[in-house]
Amino acid sequence: MFLLLTLMLFSEPRTLVVGVDAADFTATLALAQDGDTLLVPEGVWAGGVVNKTLTIRGTGGSLDGGGVGTVLTLNAPNIVVENLFVTNGGLDLFAPDHGIFVTKAATGSVLRNNRVSHCAFAIWIHETDSVRLLGNQVEGTLLGHTSNRGNGIQLFNASHLEVRGNHVSGGRDGIYVSATEDSVIAENIIENTRYGVHYMFSYDNQILGNITRNNTIGLALMQSKNLLVTDNQALNNSRNGILFRDAQNCEIRHNLLKDNGEGLFFYSSTDNRITANRIEGNEVGVKVWAGSFRNDVSRNLFINNSKQVFFVGTADLFWGEQSGGNYWSDYLGWDQNGDGKGDRPYRINSFSSHLLYTYPASVLLMRSPSLELLSHLESRLPVFKVPTLVDVAPLMEIPDENTFIAQGHR
Predict the structure, then answer these.
(1) Which of 52, 81, 143, 195 has the smallest CB count inside 10 Å?
(2) DSSP letter (8 states) at residue 369
(3) pLDDT digits over 319-357, tens only?
(4) Are 353 and 342 a contacting pair, CB within 8 Å?
(5) Do residue 115 and residue 36 come from a single domain?
């Protein structure tokens, strides 16, 4: 009986305090057993490698890498790291150095309400399953060219991840997703990066309710399949709100793309369904080229974009044949039979787009009388006609399903 009680006593979870129960963070880790909690009190402490299932909770202190290497490595299942400040890791992008590195062994771990700054890569999830990143604040550098910075959150060859409610600013890409499947990125705010959320070779993921603002590109979906992208906001991104490049079988709906260089950009992307998005106040509403066919583009709102469409192709591209057309704020037509669709197609005059694509130096002619004359002649003389985008069933009014997003927010 005495032996049983002794074993029970030593197996009960304990709370250890860095600097109290041991001199530093690494020494406190050595004392801990699976299930224990480590408190990191006020002060600056060196990081280390966690090889046990622990809860590590900041209570005012920080883990500091001293400008070298990775600050904190998680290398056991079901570790919880919360309310901790992790900073001053190495800046080597090729090592690479990290603020928090989560190994394959750390399945089921949770990073919650942490702040990570001044590291090459802030948080890196490496081949790990079922990790959750919740409410973390990631601060990347704004110094130098964006290509010489690390990513805020990097997900590599992982699965079943939840990345929710984080705020990422600065660095290269806010959330970089590579070869990652069956994961959710939701309700994050990403700003002042190159690409807010950047997908590469990733399948069966969900991107829900994120805000990407003041980046070069809001959402970049590249070489990926079966993505659900809904209820996101891409605002004031200098190049694209949402970019599709070699993306297939994706569902893009109920997103707000406002005040970007280009709201939507299709490049060699097929078999996607893009519906009920609001594309407003961009320099170009949608840019389409390089074999972007068989996409169902319907019930979107194209409102007051400086140029609604920039299209380059070898043949006319028709929208509205599958699920109905889109709403165009500059459509000049009528609806004599009252079916809610314009009686004539919305046809884009793409002569200037074709000229700019074929001869980039012709940008010097933009808004010149000569280009205006050639654009006018296009409608009169067949020799000037070039392939264009045609919406065969333009909507006369904003559809009911877009009523809420039509107010300019989710």
Answers:
(1) 143
(2) H
(3) 988 888 999 999 888 899 999 999 989 987 655 555 554
(4) no
(5) yes
